[in-house]
Amino acid sequence: MKATEVPAIAGAYLFEPTPYADERGFFCRTFDADVVRSVGLDPDAFVQDSVSRSVRGVLRGLHLRSGAGEAKLVRCSYGRIFDVVVDLRTDSPTYRNRAFFELSGETQLTLYIPAGCAHGFQALTETADTSYRIDRPHDPAEDVTIAFDDPELAIPWPLPVTSMSRRDLEAPRLAKALENMES
């Protein structure tokens, strides 16, 4: 497994495993504490694992947490997703930068998203399972959602949106979400 910095988002990394494929399918390590440690992250900091299943066109996000934020490892374990990260850390050299990734069950790439960055994705296949490993217990009172279609962000979602949660549909634009976080 190797780790590669994401130039557009300071402190973000892609972890690329080495799948071993044969006639049965494949096997690969999706988390390696030594590799995580090698880029200055604490592998023991992750306290919760979750998974979501989405159908083609479903959009989830953009989400982040207020307060201390939430760092996460995100991986598409089955299918394919279009993944988005927006740096909203005011002290970051990549503040307001966006980065786009295609994560898939085929590659098993894992994306590390630093606390203070918004995250969202859209399912590109009929079924897409997305795994999350987060560094703080979830507190719904800290949830922040930003409109997926905010023109300021101009995210090039690849498919028409087929379904979203009510929370995501009613999310404020970036400026209002940031204003709400400061108050």
TrEMBL record:
Keywords, comma-separated and alphabetical: Isomerase
InterPro entries, per the entry: RmlC-like (IPR000888), RmlC-like_jellyroll (IPR014710), RmlC_Cupin_sf (IPR011051)
Family designation: Belongs to the dTDP-4-dehydrorhamnose 3,5-epimerase family.
Protein name as catalogued: dTDP-4-dehydrorhamnose 3,5-epimerase family protein
Native source organism of the sequence: Streptomyces yunnanensis
